[in-house]
Amino acid sequence: MYKYSIGDLARAAATKVQTIRYYEETGLMPEPMRTAGNQRRYDETALNRLSFIRHSRQLGFSLDSIKALLHLTDNPDQSCQQANQIAVEQLVEVESRIARLNDLRKELVRISQSCKGGTMADCKVIETLSEHSLCDCS
Amino acid sequence: MYKYSIGDLARAAATKVQTIRYYEETGLMPEPMRTAGNQRRYDETALNRLSFIRHSRQLGFSLDSIKALLHLTDNPDQSCQQANQIAVEQLVEVESRIARLNDLRKELVRISQSCKGGTMADCKVIETLSEHSLCDCS
DNA sequence: CTTGAACCTACAGCTACTGTAGAATTTGCA
DNA sequence: TGCAAATTCTACAGTAGCTGTAGGTTCAAG
Ligand SMILES: [Zn+2]
Ligand SMILES: [Zn+2]
Ligand SMILES: [Zn+2]
Ligand SMILES: [Zn+2]
């Protein structure tokens, strides 16, 4: 039943051992069973929870958002509106990051195209990097 | 000549006072003149340098990259190849971030569309958030 | 039963700032 | 000139989300 050591869990969820302990410290993962010798032992439920956390992290959710989502799932009678709201907020956030990065990309293209080779004295890269007036970046 | 207090400089470059002191600590900004009462006083050169740093930061360059760029400009006889290389690396980095965020966006859309309202027990948001198998995210 | 891998706690360090405390200085106004 | 308010000074702690290290203990294979 409690078959996973912390290292097993780490391997199974592609995480570092310290990260799991960190999640426990910060209340994202519950305190697991311990062996007589004080080592952590986990079950399938813990693995599912950790996988959920890791995947949400890969999607860019903050630990606070993940904590909120996990809290909501612990109360299955609640409306799912809040959970969906968190997802939508994350979507909005990702979309605005994309928009911003697209602006940056444009500017970086302009900057690297301004280099025609030569010495620093002649090169326009630094100069162009200084000119905020020509750019859209916030 | 040395007309700017640290607060003036902060206002002029849209920075916080502490950030300027931090840049000084970490060697990005040189140590400025001081008044008899030990307060920092800056000139136009310092403002230019700070503006360069701030704009580069907005473009996503790390402080290390900025330090390298500043070091290169201090040696105007050098080839500009390294400077351009730093800019191109940053461009590549930004492009890969955009690509990744586009994947995330797709997945977040899928997730938020899976919610049809109801209770947490019925809602597919959490479930879909757990399913890494259906997604492209690394 | 030994040995080496994995585990334990506790703490420091990473990036790039930001905030705070408590003291000193500067500045504007009467 | 005098005084209060704003600004500055240093030093240090805190933020997110881990990651790495030291020094010691426990587990599992042979
Ligand atoms: Zn060039
Ligand atoms: Zn710009
Ligand atoms: Zn729902
Ligand atoms: Zn995914």
How do you describe this structure in short?
2 copies of one chain form a homodimer. Chain A has 138 residues and is mostly helical.
List keywords for this structure.
homodimer, 138 residues, mainly alpha, Multidrug-efflux Transporter Regulator, Chain: A, Domain 2, 2 domains, two-stranded antiparallel ribbon, 3% strand, binds zinc ion, DNA-binding
Spatial strand arrangement across the major sheet of chain A: 1-2
What's the CATH class of the largest domain in chain A, please?
A: Mainly Alpha
- Main beta sheet of chain A, described? 2 strands, antiparallel
Strand % of chain A is under 5%
What is CATH's topology name of the largest domain in chain A? Multidrug-efflux Transporter Regulator, Chain: A, Domain 2
Question: Biggest interface, which chains?
Answer: A-B, 53 and 53 residues
Question: How many domains make up the 3D coordinates of chain A?
Answer: 2
Measured between the Cα atoms of the first and last residue of chain A, the distance is 54 Å
The helix-strand sequence of chain A is HHEEHHHH
Helix content of chain A: 55-70%
Approximate shape of chain A = elongated
Write down the oligomeric state. Answer: homodimer
Count of DSSP H/I helices of chain A: 6
Q: Give the C-alpha Rg of chain A.
A: 23 Å
Strand element count of chain A: 2
Small molecules in complex: zinc ion
pLDDT averaged residue by residue of chain A: 91
Low-confidence stretches of chain A: none
